Amino acid sequence: MTLGLATASAMMMACSGSPDTVKPQDVASESAAGTSEIVYVNSDSLLANYEYFKDVRTRLQTKAEQKEKDLRTQAESFQKEVQRFQQNAAGMTQQQAQATEQRLMQKQQQLQALQQSSGNELMTEESEEMKKIYDRVEEYLKQLSQEEGYKMVLTYQRGNSAILYGDSTLDITERVVSALNKTYEGEKAEADKQKEEEKKK
C-alpha cells in the first residue's frame, strides 16, 4: 500500500474558504486593485517537495511491505501444511482427518482476519498521518495569511481543480514548501539531538 497523492491532495484545501465561494468579479477587482488577497498553492508540487510528507510516505511504504512479507510467509507456511495433510490424509483415521481439517480451517480464518486487520491498521495510520500533514499546512497558511493579509488560499491540482487559470504571481507554493521544510528540518535536528543525549545517559 502506498500513501495516495490523490488522497493527500484532496486534504490540502486550507484557510478561509473554498473555490466554490470565489466569484470571478472578486478576483478581478482584487487584482485590479493591486492586492493579492487571494492566492493559491499547487498541492502536487507541495507534496512532491515537502520533506515531512516524503518521510511519512517512505515509512508507511516500508511498513506495508514488511507486513505484506510477513503475511506472505505465513500464507506459504499454511499452504505447505495443507499439502502435507493432503499427502498424509490416506493414512489417517477419520477422526484424525476431521481434526486436522478443523485446525486448518481455523488457521485459514485467522490468516484472513490478520490480513484484514493489517490492512485496516495501515489505512488508519495513513489517515492519521494525512491529518497531521493537513494540520501542519493549515497552521502555517493561517499564520502566513495573517502576516500577508490573504483572505483566501486556494489549492490547485492539475486536472482536478476549480482554478482553470491562475497568475503565477499568486502562486505561493514555493514559499510554503520552503517554510514547512525549514520547520521540519528544525524538528528533525532537535529530535536527533535528544536521541544523542539519551544515548549518553
Automatic annotation (TrEMBL):
It holds the Pfam family OmpH. The keyword Signal applies. SUPFAM superfamilies: OmpH-like (SSF111384). Keywords: Coiled coil, Signal. One of its GO terms (biological process) is protein stabilization. GO terms for cellular component: cytosol. GO terms for molecular function: unfolded protein binding. Residues 61-147 form a coiled coil. Belongs to the Skp family. PANTHER family: CHAPERONE PROTEIN SKP. This is Outer membrane chaperone Skp. It comes from Pontibacter korlensis.
